[in-house]
Amino acid sequence: MTTWHSEGVRIRRMVPEDYEEAYALWERTPGMHLQQLNNTYGGIALLLRENPDTCFVATDPDGHVIATALGANDGRKGYLYHVAVDEQWRGHGIGTSLINRIYDVFKAIGIVKIGILVVADNYEGQEFWKKQGWNTRPDVIYFDHEL
Question: pLDDT tens across 111-143, in order?
């Protein structure tokens, strides 16, 4: 599944070969706060293998990765990860187009609720999600544990 977006931007499924360019995008995106444990090539390749229909990239006319949005689900709830758009391409609806693709797949398989984690000091990211109609959850505190 590929389509063309305005200005020659192509949206397609992410493949493991996109990892290096995607990781470089994530590193230069303020607020991403990447942790090495689960953002390795192997970790992302596993996510792509388990969720091939809900992980997307947008590429510029030269084929370089300029945006990503990764979706996964646990069978009842969906999650978004690594939604990022290169700074020079923001404001063109690319991020919204990527997440709408994920929404469509989730709806088709019966997922009715989606979650995302946004780092507390990522104010630009928080504003993006608020504009997308998302709400914060003041009733939960997120914990994680490294194995």
Answer: 999 998 888 888 888 888 898 898 888 888 878
**What are the phi and psi torsion angles at 65 (to 5°)?**
-65, 125
Helix, strand, or coil here: 76?
coil
For the stretch 47-81, pLDDT in tens is: 999 999 999 999 999 999 999 999 999 999 999 99
| Exposure of 128 in the CB half-sphere (CA atoms within 13 A) | 19
Q: Which residue has the tokens 């995008």?
A: 25
**Beta-strand runs (E) in the chain:** 2-4, 10-13, 55-59, 65-73, 78-85, 114-116
**Among the four given CATH numbers 3.30.360.10, 3.40.50.720, 3.40.630.30, 3.20.20.10, the one describing domain 2-131:** 3.40.630.30
β-pairing, 10-13 vs 55-59, is: antiparallel
The tokens for 66 are: 């300029």
